[in-house]
Amino acid sequence: MDLAERFLPAQVRGFQPRGAAGALRVELMREAMSLDDVINFNSGDLDFTAPPPVVEAAVEAIREGRTRYAHGGLPELRAAVARKLALDNGVTVDPDTQVIITNGAAEASTVVFQSLLAPGDEVLTTDPYYGGHVGAILTARGVPVFVPTGKEDAWEVDPNEVERRITVRTKAFICANPGNPTGVVLREQTLKRLLEVAHERNIILVFDELFERYVYGGLRHISAASFEGAGNRVITINGFSKSYCMTGWRLGWIAAPSWLAGHLAKMRYAISMVSPTASQWAALAALSEAARSYYERIYWILDERRIGFFGAVTRMGLPQQVPNGTYIGLLDVKPLGLSAIDVTRVFLREARVLVSPGSDFGTQAAGTVRIGLVHPAATLQEATRRLEPVVSRLLQAAGGA
Ligand SMILES: Cc1ncc(COP(=O)(O)O)c(C=O)c1O
Q1: What is residue 241's DSSP assignment?
Q2: What spacing in Å lies between the alpha carbon of 275 and ligand 1's midpoint?
Q3: 182 Cβ below 6 A of ligand 1
Q4: Could you say which of 50, 84, 128, 140 has the lowest number of CB atoms within 10 Å?
Q5: Entry pTM
Q6: Residue nearest to atom 2 of ligand 1 (CA)
Q7: Looking at domain 3-49+293-400, which CATH architecture does it have?
Q8: pLDDT of 133 higher than 80
């Protein structure tokens, strides 16, 4: 007897959190690991770690034994998150009842969809999408419904396209703002229209603002939860991984409407009870004045990387839009005349540069590859030096075809 068939429901056996392309990505990753000296752009994990005041806060907490369960999240951290939301985002929440500390933004979206969805409920998200959101919808037995976005609109979602896809089963719309993999930064008018749609069609909006500090190009990050009338409709997810260089510390938060927050807190407790206490003391320091200058310096370094790298690729004869948000983006590789999977393979084999094929992130990202600028300038220069002859050869072959 096939034990997997006997014991696992079909949706678990067939579960592919990153879509069909996941298997191919695994194969390419395996190949990359067997090669020497690969420059890996296939990651969103920055090369920076948390600054000394953050590390010291964790070490001190461990030394002093402040490491027991922090049920409901450390009150000091919840208060600091609420303060940050008020000051940086214009979002007012009660720290005691509306801030839920989670194990990263990943768990935050899981908690949200485990709470909101009955099996078969639909959740709208963008295409290209962030795979973790789709995974959270699927594990809650929900159905992701994709709203196409395009390069010609700088990958910004059209709220009317969201509205067109709402059915009686639709519970929510989720997206990352700033976006992963596209780097899109949603404009005020788009957010306002999404909120109108949410009110008119009775759905919830979930914004994952994990990259909120990395917004460039004269734009600014706007939290939809700050708008008048957003209080009951908007869930904000955020965390310390990206904006505070704390990926492995596993801390995030949900800021939720008051009618919902208590239910999310129960679900969060049922899933994993509490978050690591030492990480919470560290996160408190990350939100403090002592860490500010370190994070500001990183902001400007990432700005240089973004402009430098996308500019270098453009100068290779492969024109690119520079993303306005995050340190992640999609390179348009259509002019190379190969599928994104083949481009990924050629970049790996000929340039020892590992990227992710856009097909990992939805149908609209076909013809692109995703890159995470998680390396210092010298490594990025080396990557462009290696890519240049490969791109040039492919462009010539495509032009001559
Ligand atoms: C948009 C987005 N949301 C959530 C996550 C998960 O982050 P965390 O480490 O906070 O769980 C990631 C990680 O890459 C991400 O890019």
Answers
A1: T
A2: 16
A3: no
A4: 84
A5: 0.96
A6: 210
A7: Alpha-Beta Complex (3.90)
A8: yes
